[in-house]
């Protein structure tokens, strides 16, 4: 099959085509449209999966930091509690 570049001499009006040719062109266009939609959907799903994995990883990091802070708080005690009690001892 010979591939030629489109220009005004190569273009044919849709009205001049036979019904079978129109149907064939429309069918090919519909198939290409479906393929493009599937491609876009797959890309969107892949992007969503990456974002979800990143969100889960960052949530996991936050949970680890919170757990470490709680362990440190248990081991050392709360410095705020001592200061806040001290503030109220000397009040009249």
Order of helices and strands: HH
- Please estimate the helix content: over 70%
- Quaternary state of this entry equals single chain
Shape: rod-shaped
Number of helices: 2
Low-confidence stretches: none
Rg:
34 Å
Structural class: mainly alpha
Instruction: Give the integer mean of the pLDDT values.
Output: 82
Number of strands: 0
Percentage of residues in strands: under 5%
Largest sheet: none
Distance between the termini: 101 Å
Quick structural summary:
The chain has 92 residues and is mainly alpha-helical. The protein is 75% helix and 0% strand. The N and C termini lie far apart (101 Å).
Kindly describe this structure.
The chain has helices at residues 19-76, 79-89. By secondary structure, it is mostly helical.
Topology (SSEs and partners):
Blueprint: H1 19-76, H2 79-89
Features:
92 residues; single chain; 2 helices; mainly alpha
């Amino acid at each position: 099959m010979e591939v030629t570049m489109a220009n005004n001499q190569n273009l044919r009006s849709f009205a001049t085509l036979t019904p079978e040719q129109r149907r064939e062109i429309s069918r090919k266009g519909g198939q290409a449209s479906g393929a493009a939609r599937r491609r876009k959907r797959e890309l969107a799903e892949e992007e969503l999966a990456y974002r979800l994995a990143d969100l889960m990883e960052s949530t996991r990091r936050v949970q680890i930091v919170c757990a470490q802070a709680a362990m440190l708080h248990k081991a050392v005690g709360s410095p705020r509690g001592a200061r806040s009690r001290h503030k109220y001892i000397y009040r009249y």
